[in-house]
Write a structure and sequence with these properties.
Oligomer: homodimer
Radius of gyration of chain A: 16 Å
Structural class of chain A: alpha+beta
Largest sheet of chain A: 5 strands, mixed
Shape of chain A: globular
Chain lengths: ~170, ~170
């Protein structure tokens, strides 16, 4: 994995990638006035993402380029292609728990970025992914979807896979 | 994270943990003679597990104890408890892709344990988890389920979460 830009020699960002044939995520819980709202994608990739202290926007272009160009998806003919080449849909899920370290029986999140900086980086990450995926889909003449979770919300997720093919990437 | 016993200073094992309210995994694909077979759990935890070169059975007792005693689950009253305390069900999924490293746009798995050694460790890991969970459930007078995937198979997974609450642990 690439060397990190985070403090203390650790990574600046951590991502877990899973393939899906369908995924849905609650982006707004139900309240007295309205039902819960969900976003959904079909075939493509789910990216769970967490930023650490010391992460800056500088890392985003390389990070997005790496994640979206890795050959982790399977084409109809069984060839390994990237989500951009497929082209597949993308669901991005902010997942601060990925930054946890065990201390005794509990988890601590002391290395995680602050909420304000995390939201800023997360939003920029989502915008960059959207730009890349939209361009790839337009070039391929395909329709794909990019959806994302809400920073700070509980991420109620349903995932349907043909093999999650889970990968870890650090930057 | 705990210091690893693997070769080259890396970890000996990597686990990704997710909470679920239901999860089902195909353990045998359909063939001409029979339909696909699935295992299913309700509320509990999914453990994706990967062993690296140099991993030995010595690491398993501490690893299982750590994973099953971490307070990653939510009780009915909203308190954080371990899967043993809940007690919840457990789905263990062998996931060799977790050992991947990006090389250019492809993934390489050179640090992964051999298939034979991996199967042996995976089987011992599953047996230890089953022993701990069964003892905890008996002590609590509860019924819980432990299921696991088949080493070497494609892990067709459906995951239904109330927040995946994804954590990474290395040993």
């Amino acid at each position: 994995m690439a060397g990190g830009g985070g403090g203390g020699g650790g990574p600046a960002a951590r991502a877990v990638l899973q393939r899906c044939v369908r995924a849905s995520l609650q982006v707004k819980p139900a309240d007295e006035l309205s039902e819960a709202r969900f976003v959904q994608i079909d075939r493509g990739m789910v990216i769970y993402i967490c930023f650490f202290k010391g992460a800056t926007e500088d890392i985003l272009p390389k990070m997005v380029s790496t994640l979206l160009n890795l050959r982790l998806c399977e084409s109809d003919s069984g060839k390994m292609v990237s989500v951009l080449e497929l082209p597949g849909s993308l669901l991005i899920i902010p997942q601060a728990t990925l930054g946890g370290k065990a201390k005794g029986r509990g988890m601590q999140y002391h290395s995680n970025i602050s909420k304000e900086d995390g939201l800023r980086l997360y939003s920029a990450f989502v915008a960059l992914c959207e730009k890349e995926l939209t361009a790839a889909a337009a070039a391929a003449g395909s329709q794909v979807t990019m959806k994302h979770g809400t920073y700070g919300n509980r991420q109620v997720l349903k995932l349907d896979t043909n093999g999650p093919y889970t990968h870890l990437m650090e930057f």
